[in-house]
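Please review this one:
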Amino acid sequence: MTEPQLDLLSWNVRGLNRQDRKDTIHQIVVATRCHIACLQETKLSLVDQHTAAYLGGFRLRNFAYKPAGGVLGTRGGILILWDDNVVDCANFVLGEWFISADVTIKECSTNFRLTAVYGPTKHRARQRFLEELRTLRPDPNTRWLILGDFNLIYKASDKNNNKINHRLMQQFRDALDDCDLSEIHLQNRKFTWSNERRNLTLAKLDRVFCNANWDMTFHSHVLHALSTSLSDHCLLLLSNKNGPRRP
C-alpha cells in the first residue's frame, strides 16, 4: 500500500497583526508547498477570508481558527489553513487551548484526527491544559496527530539549563502516556525556542506527537525544523521521506 502524501507545517508565529509577518508566512507557505498549515499565537481575534487566503499563498484557501483572547483580543489564537484540492477538513472542535478537525486526504481517502495546540504560558493553567489534553484522546481505531507549541517539556535534555520543574515534566509525560502518544523525532535541531537574550535559554517547546495508528500509516514521514528570523520559535515541517522543500 502506497503511503499517503501529506506535507504539514506547524509554527508559533508570535503574532499576525503586522504586514511584514503576514508577508513572511505567505512566502513560506508558497515555498514549502505544504497542504496544511497550523499557526499558533496568531494574536488575532478575527480572521477573514482575504487574510486567510493571503497567508495560505492563495492555495490554502480554506481556514478555521480559534480566536485570540484576553481583554484586547490579542492573547493566543490558533489558525489552520488547508488546500481543499488535496484534503478535506471537517467536524471542528475548539477548546481552551486547542482546535481539532477530522482530515481526509482526497486521493486515497485516508483520514485522521488533527489537533493543533497552543499551551498556556502561565504555570497555574498548565494542569488544566494537561487534563484537557487527556480528554482529546480519540477511540483506539482513530489515527491521531497532535502538534503545536505545548509550552512544556517532558525531558531534562529539552532545555539547555537546569531550571526545570521536574513535577510538571512528569505530569506531561503521564498525560502523553495516558493518550498513547509518541513524539515524532525532530531531525535537525535539538531546541525549537530561544529567549534571544544574552543569558541564553533554549528549549524544545514545539512538538509533533502521534498515536500508533497514525505512525503505521505515515511511517515514512519525517519532521524538519526550518530557520526563520520572524519568530523566536522555529517552524516545523512534516513531510514524507523525500524531505521538505526548503525555503
Observations:
- Helices lie at 19-32, 49-55, 126-135, 166-178, 212-217.
- The chain has one domain: 8-239.
